Amino acid sequence: MSERAGGQSGVRDRKRAETRAAIVRAATGLFLERGVTRTSIDDIAAGAGIARRTFFLHFPSKEDVLFHYLESHVRRAADVLDTLPAEAGPEQGVSAVMGELVDLFADPSAGTDALADPRAELVTASRGLPASLIVRLQRAQVDLVEALRGRFPEPAGWPLLSAHLGACMGAAAAAAVAVERPEARAGAIRDAVDRASTGFVG
Q1: Whether 54 and 125 share a structural domain
Q2: Could you tell me if 187 and 147 lie in one domain?
């Protein structure tokens, strides 16, 4: 790739990131002010200063903005596996991955918890999650399982490893939408993850 082409690619990536960030900012403000159900994609696009069709280049639905952080958090959680000592086992791997996810959720600079209340509203109103979000959450779990399998390559341990991670992620998601007080949410998620791990840690 030429230097000029590389520079153009960098500019495109930066503009794409800026547009995505503008969508997230606009949607966050509107969701907190009006709620998810009373906010339209046209409202978000107008708030972000973009065309409606541009919104769909970044998110398949307005509900997906509620989980805009998911892929980057999963990548950061998977990277934690590289810092584990050589003697660490799968249980420690799952604990490290989940610990990083919970820390990111609780970190104000990550912006994850800002939309926790609208996420809870969505789950309550729709009695579940939209299909597009379910697909993304399943993909996140698959990506983490693959990262864990790469770190712990003994196939005999994979079923238990997958079950351990699934139990922890399910417990975290349930706790996140069940706690009404924002200041108590991170602690409740940590407690739920610890309890879900009980049967898997020897």
Answers
A1: no
A2: yes
- pLDDT score recorded for residue 7: 63
As a whole number of angstroms, the distance between CA 27 and CA 44 comes to 5
Query: 143-171, pLDDT tens digit by residue?
Result: 999 999 999 999 999 999 999 999 999 99
Query: 109 with 171, same domain?
Result: yes
**How far apart are the two ends of the chain, measured CA to CA in Å?**
51
Instruction: For residue 50, give the DSSP letter.
Output: -
Give pLDDT, residue 116: 75
Q: Note the pTM of the prediction, 2 decimals.
A: 0.78
The SS3 call for residue 167 is helix
Q: Do 113 and 202 lie in a common domain?
A: yes
* CA separation for the pair 70, 137 (Å, rounded): 8
Token pair listed for 24 = 């997230």
Please say whether the beta carbons of 119 and 177 come within 8 A: yes
| C-alpha torsion sign, points 69, 161, 132, 120 | negative
C-beta pairs of 122-125 under 8 Å, 24+ apart in sequence: 122/36, 122/37, 122/63, 122/66, 123/177, 124/177, 125/36, 125/37
Structure tokens given for 126 = 């729709």
Report residues of the chain scoring pLDDT below 70: 1-8, 109-113, 127-129, 202
* Cβ atoms 174, 120 nearer than 8 A: no
Do residues 103 and 119 touch, judged by C-beta distance below 8 A?
Answer: no
Name the token pair of 61: 């639905």
Q: Is 35 left (phi over 0), alpha (psi -120 to 50) or beta?
A: left
For residue 201, what pLDDT is reported? 76
